[in-house]
């Protein structure tokens, strides 16, 4: 029996392991478009698009065919040394051309965590090349999620990602994030709030010593920490501060990349001017594991010189530049372009707003925020004071469980924010159905 086998042999990700021994797995058996079904045949409307990643939904024939074609032509080729393959070359070229700011080179890996890990290593390599080896520290933001390798989990600032692991590693710092719901002081405008956050970053850099800081990393819209869209002036002000000290800016576009906020990149929606960009997830609509790191010319030239003196750029993975993953990513990008899906995501912003904003009247809902197809509905203990529920009350999880019972898949991110981040192919009818099911679930939990 599959359920017993899962409990006996499968070490699950991101779950209470002990609880899983009695809960057992939800076995997903298939799906089509924005729906998946479990092994009993029950259907769920997936408003989280897998993990903010399944942007073309399930059952896309073109992606299946692109993979099959590439498997038959060339199932694998490594990229160490001077090796390459056609889909890898075409994908690196396509990404450099799509980049929101001029980028020079792309390196492929298999996951968002690896891309962020690589970005940090390249920042270190860059500063060593420039004879500033003291620049080791990386500044991320409170509540950030950047992945689960030892480095990516150190960039992350979510308590359960550190507890028990002895993380973060030394040298990873976290400054306040642009939480426009609870962050601004009484009477403070969003622009003033953004200025204050930039000042906090500046003060942190001066306290630590600019000569010790390598890079700053941020998601254009913070995802797993609670879906926080920044004030428009936030990233330009952050860039000003970083420029003052020559610090590199890494944009983690793992969620935002490829249309999620209604532009190709979250950096375009929010005026981010990064030196490096990481992306994954929707890059292949998560049909196969692939991520991309892009670096600009300034970084490339510096690390190229260093690799020349060392003799080799000592970084890369067996599956970095897997031809089948690259072929599927290329086909995904073609579909986004041919079906104008990025514009579609921008257009659906108004639809999401129309269906979700009325939830603000619900006694449990404190805030509804988002952009494009990246929205969050925050449940609170007290609407007036914005007081959060105690984590132990698990209200977010109770709402998402109630949704699940009703056939709606969402997830409480940051503990209490219900994620509405569907595939780019979602219809208005599906958004409306989902909003109705969420309302019913909130009524039930209330
Ligand atoms: N960065 C962000 C913003 C993410 O949301 C995630 C995953 O959710 C990651 C990085 C890590 O990606 P992966 O799970 O592919 O390692």
SSE topology:
Layout: H1 2-9, H2 17-23, E1 28-32, E2 35-38, E3 43-46, H3 49-52, H4 61-73, H5 86-98, E4 105-109, H6 112-129, E5 137-141, H7 150-155, H8 159-162, E6 172-175, H9 190-208, E7 213-218, H10 234-245, E8 248-252, H11 266-269, E9 276-279, E10 291-295, H12 297-310, H13 323-338, H14 341-356, E11 365-371, E12 374-379, H15 395-405, E13 408-409, E14 412-413, E15 417-420, H16 428-445
Parallel strand pairs: 3-13, 5-6, 5-7, 7-8, 8-9
Antiparallel strand pairs: 1-2, 2-3, 4-10, 9-10, 11-12, 12-15, 14-15
Helix pairs in contact: 4-13, 5-13, 6-12, 9-10, 14-16, 15-16
The structure holds pyridoxal-5'-phosphate.
Protein name: Aminotransferase
InterPro entries: Aminotrans_3, Aminotrans_3_PPA_site, PyrdxlP-dep_Trfase, PyrdxlP-dep_Trfase_major, PyrdxlP-dep_Trfase_small
Cofactor: pyridoxal 5'-phosphate
How far apart lie the N and C ends? 37 Å
Count, helices: 16
User: How many structural domains does the protein architecture include?
Assistant: 2
CATH C-level of the largest domain = Alpha Beta
Largest sheet: 7 strands, mixed
